[in-house]
Amino acid sequence: STEEATRNARNGRGPRGGESSGGRISTNVERPSTRYTSYDEGNLFRISVPSNWRELPGNNSVTFAPEGGYGSAGQQSVFTHGVEAGIMRNESHDLQTATQELVQSFSQSNPRMRPTSRGDRASVGGRNGLRTRMTNQNEATGRPENLALYTTILNDGTLFYLIGVAPDNEYGNYDSVFDRVAGSVQFAR
Fold first, then answer.
1. Beta strands in 96-177, from DSSP E residues, in sequence order
2. Mean pLDDT of 142-166
3. Do the beta carbons of residue 15 and residue 84 sit within 8 Å?
């Protein structure tokens, strides 16, 4: 279910990436590069991210984050800067409802996370989508952070999501980057 998948992806500790591969969270993270690198994520989608971000594959998602922007909090892999993309089973087949369910699931597993918008229209890989803004307190750093959640429904009815994360005081350097990454997605289905 969507709730199980989001619990696996987040588990109450802020956005979660794949294996941290020795990453270390730092308060001094390099700004996003203006050059972009493309990655193929199996036969699901292609995505372009700043060239100074590293690909961190996970079980249900893939995270792209810069050095110093990912690591571990306890037994959990987390990231403080970057994006996570994934595809989830959609039980409602309505974009607004599926997005609200995803946001509720994030909020249930992380009580400090709060939506600050209901979902504005957005283009996600050339498809109609929604962009929902949220705030959170990152458990690894204790710092407030802002999140941008992009969602769209794929041809087979699954929900694609991309969530961008940056500390509150650095978000201005990331907002347009998140829009560009969401726009870069090319779906295989």
1. 114-115, 120-124, 127-137, 144-153, 159-167
2. 94
3. yes
Q: Is 22 helix (H, G, I), strand (E, B) or coil?
A: coil
Name which residue leads in pLDDT, 132 or 89.
132
Q: Is the dihedral of CA 63, 112, 120, 166 positive or negative?
A: negative
Give the integer Cα–Cα distance in Å for 188 and 49: 18
Closest CA to 183 of 45, 88, 56: 45
pLDDT of residue 189: 66
pLDDT at 46 over 80: yes
- The pTM of the full predicted model, rounded to 2 decimals, is 0.85
Is 65 in a helix, a strand, or coil? strand
Look at residue 109 in the predicted model and tell me its pLDDT: 77
3-class secondary-structure state, position 153: strand
Interatomic CA distance for residues 131 and 133, integer angstroms: 7
Query: Among all chains, which residue has been given the structure tokens 């709730």?
Result: 3
Nearest-angstrom CA–CA distance, 91 and 159? 9
